[in-house]
Design a protein that fits this description.
272 residues, single chain, Rossmann fold, 11 helices, 8 strands, 8-stranded mixed beta sheet, alpha/beta, globular
Length: 272
């Protein structure tokens, strides 16, 4: 599995398929392999080059225990470093939960690198993440019970093995409280697709985000919670139709992100 290094943190990734590049970023607890298990890769690889990365703190990527290592600016640089390594100038982006949060960071810093964004169960507004930190007990047996309860019948043996291999201390410090990035929304003129389960606590915020974007499509999934909203049988039909029919209305003069929204980001990129 190839990798890149950003500020001494190794980021593992995989490239599968042929066609326009689609970056796929998993949620908290997950890894790039999730997209294979959920059926996305088989459904999309004939028409897209899928870049599946393991976010820092997850999967086969490095797992620092310093909370500062999980700053959103660094996560953004991780994705850009992978694209640079692959020689990809422009890509589509699909992010679930944590991956969607990173997507809004990418739109804020590097909108010109992306043709479209798909956000599943995620929004750019401020959020206290204590409830997620509370989900990660230090006791591994307790975490095993939590995994069974949260994922239920969706949990395959392979997924269970990967989830239980997580570094719980790294996950806990990575679930940092999130500041609002809603100021980027007016500049996101590229096509955006937003999806959320109607039982997801984030549902109303995701729907609000769609209304705050200038070029967005929104779908809600009835009787579906946050974990269920990423099911391939629900998302893939919408994603395929969106990628096939999206129209980029971006004006080259209007589509640029704010100048230096994170002044320290250039240093982070130069250090990778």
């Amino acid at each position: 599995m190839p990798s890149v290094i950003n500020q001494s943190v190794r980021i593992k990734y995989e490239s599968i398929g042929n066609g326009p590049t689609l970056v796929m970023h998993h949620g908290l607890f997950g890894s790039g392999t999730d997209w294979i298990d959920y059926g996305y890769v088989d459904a999309l690889k004939a028409d897209h080059r899928l870049v599946l990365l393991d976010s820092r703190g997850h999967g086969q990527s490095d797992k620092p225990h310093d909370p500062e290592a999980y700053d959103l600016a660094l996560r953004v640089c991780d994705v850009l470093a992978v694209l640079d390594e692959l020689g990809v100038g422009n890509a589509d982006y699909c992010g679930y939960s944590l991956g969607g949060w990173v997507g809004f960071g990418l739109a804020k810093r590097a909108l010109e690198r992306f043709r479209s964004f798909t956000f599943v169960g995620s929004h750019p507004y401020a959020e206290n993440m204590q409830a997620f930190r509370d989900l990660m007990p230090r006791d591994r047996d307790a975490f095993s019970l939590l995994v069974e309860r949260v994922f239920g019948s969706r949990l395959t043996p392979a997924m269970r093995t990967r989830l239980l291999a997580n570094d719980l201390d790294a996950l806990r410090v990575s679930a940092r409280d999130r500041e609002s990035n809603a100021d980027v929304l007016p500049s996101m003129i590229v096509p955006c697709l937003l999806l959320a389960g109607e039982l997801d606590p984030r549902f109303e915020q995701v729907r609000q985000c769609a209304s705050d974007l200038p070029n967005a499509t929104f779908f809600g999934f009835p009787d579906c919670d946050h974990v269920g909203s990423v099911r391939g049988d629900l998302v893939v039909p919408h994603l395929k139709a969106f990628l096939a029919n999206k129209v980029d209305t971006r004006d080259p003069r209007a589509g640029s992100p704010p100048a230096d929204p994170w002044p320290d980001l250039a240093e982070a990129q130069s250090s990778r």
